[in-house]
Amino acid sequence: MKAKRIVVLGPESTGKSELCQHLAMHYQTEWVPEYARFYLDRLDGEYQQNDLKSIAEGQLSWEDEKAEYANDYLICDTNLVVIKIWSDHKYENTDSWIEEQIVARSYDFYLLNNIDIPWMPDPQREHPKLRKHFFEVYKAYLDERKLPYAIVSGIEGERKKCAVDAIEEYFNEKDAGSKSGMTS
Q1: Rounded to whole angstroms, how far apart are CA atoms 73 and 173?
Q2: C-alpha distance from residue 124 to each of 36, 45, 92, 152 (Å)
Q3: Domain 4-179 adopts which CATH fold?
Q4: Where are the domains of the chain?
Q5: Which of 19, 117, 133, 172 has the fewest CB atoms found within 10 Å of its own CB?
Q6: Percentage of residues in the chain having pLDDT higher than 70
């Protein structure tokens, strides 16, 4: 059985990586770290727009590799939507290859992390004052494409419980609908 792909996304410093690790432990499955962190840690100097395609390729490679070992779910710490939104913001466009890959790939469910936890400084984070803006951009993206998602809120244990509850509710409803012949 192919693992259901769950993407955790949201603005900077909203606990995405920590939540992904928790969900992977909870569901005893694999999670895909954010390739951008790995890439940027090894980059000499500032990143440029052409680096975003390399980051996207690395993210997809890691995702495909982890998918081979995932159980029921594959937890993805971001996906190419994050790169697109970032590229559109910073460079006012996105590489066509990244756009094509976004269309070609499908994900089963998204968790959109809310901005209700404090900002934590990090050398790779760029926009502490734009968290609300980016939250709204992610939400609009998901809404416009009618992608299934839930907003994850709360601190520490509440946030983790919120995410697990959202996953359980979505997939239980989806499974119940498919068993009764309904489609979602």
Answers
A1: 16
A2: 9, 12, 20, 23
A3: Rossmann fold (3.40.50)
A4: 4-179
A5: 172
A6: 90
Q: What is the pLDDT of residue 40?
A: 87
Q: Sort strands 73-77 and 4-9 into parallel, antiparallel or unpaired.
A: parallel
Note the pLDDT of residue 122: 57
Q: Is the pTM of this model over 0.85?
A: yes
Count CB atoms within 10 A of the CB of residue 5: 20
In SS3 terms, the chain reads as: CCCEEEEEECCCCCCHHHHHHHHHHHHCCEEECCHHHHHHHCCCCCCCHHHHHHHHHHHHHHHHHHHCCCCCEEEEECCHHHHHHHHHHHHCCCCHHHHHHHHHCCCCEEEEECCCCCCCCCCCCCCHHHHHHHHHHHHHHHHHCCCCEEEECCCCHHHHHHHHHHHHHHHHHHHHHHHCCCCC
- As given in the structure block, the two tokens for residue 88 are 């559109």
